[in-house]
Amino acid sequence: MPYERKVIDIQEIRRQQAICAEIFDRVTADGRRPLAMVDTYGCQQNEADSEKLRGYLAEMGYSFTQDEFQADVIVVNTCAVREHAEMRVLGNVGALNHTKKNKPDQIIAVCGCMVQQEHMAQKIKMSYPVVDLVFGPHELWRFPELLQRVMTRGKRVFATEKDNGAVAEGIPQRRDGSVKAWLSIMYGCNNFCTYCVVPYVRGRERSRRPEDVVAEARELVAAGYKDITLLGQNVNSYGKDLDSGVDFADLIRMVNDIPGDFLIRFMTSHPKDATEKLFKTMAECEKCAHHIHLPVQAGSDRVLKAMNRSYSRAKYLEEVALARQYMPDLVLTTDIIVGFPGETEEDFAETLSLCEEVRFDAMFTFIYSKRVGTPAASMPDPYTRADKQRHFDQLMEVANRISGEKHREYEGRTLRVLVDGETGKPAYNLSSRTNGGRLVHLKGDPALVGQFVDVTITASNTWALYGELAEKQ
Ligand code: 5AD
Ligand code: SF4
After folding, report:
1. pLDDT in tens, 73-96
2. Which of 188, 198, 138, 175 is nearest to 335 (CA)?
């Protein structure tokens, strides 16, 4: 247990909620219902964090809008994983000059991973005077206090101290949907992959107590949620910082024991600590989806080593074989980085061959993005952007072909899906997901949203399946 696990006292959260009540009085004093907008970039963890920001904002009396010209408070929850996301944030924050000109009292906050990097917090301080409040992921639990400071002092507030992070329970949440829910089980990352900024901005791994996770899962099931995704940067190391004796597989079993008809999903698994116990548990727990997102990142041992991934190509392939032994219907998805510093034609060929060998159901592919302060940022990188783009295109072609082929294998089969929303398209007005998380478009009564139904797959393409209700529901 190398790091001390810091817990925010529940009384502190109650104090934040008391501040929400004070803000409520202030912002509703003229009888008006104020509006807030929360704009989220990046991963599911950020989506989950935004639900907490909205939870607090709702307690402050805010309703929500997507229109930045109407909003009294705008919160931009940012991502730092790749440069592209940062550029989008900066562009969009810059454009808020217009909205603030129309509405000078508008409060603009920028939070999340991007601003936890010192150089980015500085950049906003110096070049984006339109921003009133900046806070990193470690300060989210005290957002009400920070916002109140902006409101009462009329000064810009910056809260982006370096921190290893804490666990805070009891923050109110305003969830996005009514069918699918995110449930954070742990925060931070200890892995320090050499390309990745996450451990620097999200701090060390810290797990929520199993009883807190299970209590939240129970609430979600009671509220009618049917698809619960357990979230963490590396869920496979869940519990290592606790003395509860509960590992990730045990946690799945505990959630699985909650009565009700629902699905358990999880994101993300690091291949270095996915265990046979996990695969066995997934196979045995009837509510656990047979889907693993297992980012491989590269197919060459040399690159994997330079990335500090702590597994070899052979170990990854063995793990996949073992998982498929327990779950022959397993849906396997992955992340791949193309153009890691010094990745050669030969290295890349190994990534391609690994993909052909594993046949992922879906692949998320990224061109390497240099991140300030990471070890990879100072590795020699002789290959041109054009080389990387060529590899990226080649990999996408392989990924799309394999996804298309795998999807075609579903045609004619009847399977159970969870209807999770409406598409707005008349031909296929509903969207749904298979147990393995594959998207299925179908036609049916909107009242089916939130229900499990049997569908027969009639058509497919690279991205989705198309189906018909198998019987009168
Ligand atoms: N450049 C490109 N992709 C990255 N990822 C993480 N850091 C970088 C980076 N610097 C990708 C990894 C990870 C996913 C969430 O983002 O593939 O699994
Ligand atoms: Fe980044 Fe690696 Fe941690 Fe994932 S496991 S968040 S890629 S450092």
Report:
1. 999 999 999 999 999 999 999 999
2. 198
